[in-house]
Automatic annotation (TrEMBL):
Protein's recorded name: Serine acetyltransferase
Gene3D superfamilies tied to this protein: Hexapeptide repeat proteins (2.160.10.10)
Family statement drawn from the similarity comment of this UniProt entry: Belongs to the transferase hexapeptide repeat family.
Reactions catalysed: L-serine + acetyl-CoA = O-acetyl-L-serine + CoA
GO molecular function, one term: serine O-acetyltransferase activity
Entry annotated with the keyword Transferase: yes
InterPro entries registered for this protein in UniProt: LbH_SAT, Ser_O-AcTrfase, Trimer_LpxA-like_sf
Keywords attached to this entry: Acyltransferase, Membrane, Transferase, Transmembrane, Transmembrane helix
Enzyme Commission number(s) of this protein: 2.3.1.30
Listed transmembrane segments: 20-39, 51-75, 81-101
Length: 184
């Protein structure tokens, strides 16, 4: 997908959950963060000439810090995120620079998706498509979450899980096979 198509898919996802153009563009911090990420990621991937790459990446880093301060949402330009990404609420969202997130995913406030583990088990998560992560959940370590997974609020996901699962608890366990249907 092109940069414009990705931004449009994020906007449509925010529009789906209510609001209008003015409200989403000017008052929705989750959209600000995803919009800034899309532009930053485009520059990170496409700027190849060294004479342009350094100043552009510096500008991207400054913008990322401004967005972090304004929104409490940290999405580095090197993260890979599929289309239709939705951040529902303000603040406390930290995503590691090496994370991969699939298409059509929703993230709530207070979510951390990061590095964990020791030795060969050290790494970051790979998230499939159609994933919903509830408020204050932590997804950490060298794990893979399949498609259509719901992570309930305040859960700690430190193991890989197949698709169509509802995860809950510390550490998270499968409590249902219904997946994220109805949440995305």
């Amino acid at each position: 997908m092109t940069l414009l198509q990705l931004i449009k898919s994020d906007y449509k996802k925010h529009l789906k959950y209510g609001g209008n153009f003015f409200g989403i563009v000017f008052f929705t911090q989750g959209f600000w963060a995803s919009f800034n990420y899309r532009i930053s990621h485009f520059i990170y991937k496409k700027a190849k000439w060294k004479i342009f790459r350094f100043p552009l990446l510096f500008w991207v880093l400054i913008n990322q810090k401004i967005i972090e301060i304004l929104t409490g949402i940290s999405i580095p330009s090197s993260v890979t995120i599929g289309h239709s990404f939705y951040i529902g609420h303000f603040g406390g969202i930290i995503i590691n620079a090496n994370v991969i997130i699939g298409n059509n995913c929703n993230i709530s406030q207070g979510v951390t998706i990061g590095v964990s583990g020791i030795g060969e088990k050290r790494g970051v998560p790979i998230l499939g498509n159609d994933i919903y992560i509830g408020a204050n959940a932590v997804v950490a370590g060298k794990i893979v979450l399949g498609d259509n997974i719901l992570v309930s609020a305040c859960s700690l996901v430190k193991d890989s899980f197949p698709g169509f699962s509802v995860l809950s608890g510390v550490p998270a366990v499968v409590i249902s096979q219904k997946g994220s249907n109805g949440y995305i």
